[in-house]
Design brief:
mainly alpha
Amino acid sequence: MKTKKERPYGTTSGLERLTYALGDLGSNFVWTFCSSFLTLYYTDSVLVSAGLVGTIMLICRIFDGFSDIGAGLLIEKTKGKRGKARPWFGGSIIPLVLIQLLVFNVPGSMAMGAKIAWIIVSYFLLTVVAYTINNVSYHAMLPRISLTSEDRNKVSSLRGIFSFIAGLLLAILTPRLLAAGGGEKLQSSWTSIALIYSVLCLVFEGICYFGTKEKISSAESTGETKAEPHDVKLGVRELLHTKYFYITVLVFIFCFIINGIFLSSAVYFTRDVFGNADLYSLIAIISILFAVVVMAFAPKMFAKHGKRNVLLVAAVIGVVGGVIGYVGAKGLNVVLVFVSTALHGISLAPFVAAIFTFASDIIDYLEIKTGERYEGLVTSVSSIGSKVGVGLGSAILGWGLAAGGYDGALAQQAQSAKNAETILLFIVPAIASVVCFICMWFWDIDKKIAEGKK
């Protein structure tokens, strides 16, 4: 292992990568918990219609897009000893976990209209305010602590592994904790789980905050560029005039549709189609284990074949996996469903490893064009894409369930609802993978950056 003096300037140590990755582990005890189980809580415990839940979530995510830009601009204007992004990350941790407790504690004594109002306000505060600041600032730290593309791939891959580990823990623990608390229809079950996960988020994000320090780029240290960009309008204009901005947003949106809808629809699918809720944990475990294995090799694959080529192949695997899963579900073939699940993890892993480096690549690309680094502004692009993606995924889930006639008060769902759950779990991700393939076909930023440095 290289010492600090032996490492090239701007690269990270193993401990730094681990500390940074723990931040994503912590945030997923809010983010993945909500994206995977919040719709179930609202439909089966609070008894709000699935269609209304999906609409509320999508509307909030529209506002979320504006708040992401605002958070990015705040980071751009921040100056201090603790850095640009790190102060906002640290300040958002406690509000984030407290608001999650409000989200999963809709008072049962309220009338339905009051419950809906509680859902709107608490979900808005969680996603549009607290998580936006937390997420934008966390990812804005990446290009500040890791200043080379190769090193960022390593940092982001480890971060992605820990994100999948969080998903694995949630998939194993949540159904069991719900069962131990009396089932998904009881408020007390959700209260206990939300409290446990909020504490875990607080601990892991706290470790990340205290263990991570921002660096400055070598260009800033030598005076080749300004330490703080002063012309934000220039950055916005240049960002909006590059195709990489739109590609990044689209890939984020559809990747998070795939990830969010797969986990959340699987909760309904395993219980209603196969009649065995315990299969959810197996599906999640298979997907995540395959994803973690692929994620571990992602940096080497990117270095050898290029991010674009690896992601093109991954998108094709995602389409194939969706088709196999749909065939398996229609025939009630558990083996084919498990094969599809494995292919889902293999397909998604390279995207999770790579997409959070897209913003860093765009930052480098804009620095070549403008001489300034816009970490906060560009990172908001990633956050916009992920939020809109999860919002659309939640909306599609809610609307799809509603179209199939899903009723959370029923012990047995109609066949139309089961058909909808099958399409949501397998066909929607396959379509999203097609969109990701098209987007990556036009991604050539590495070549442009190399040309600009000559």
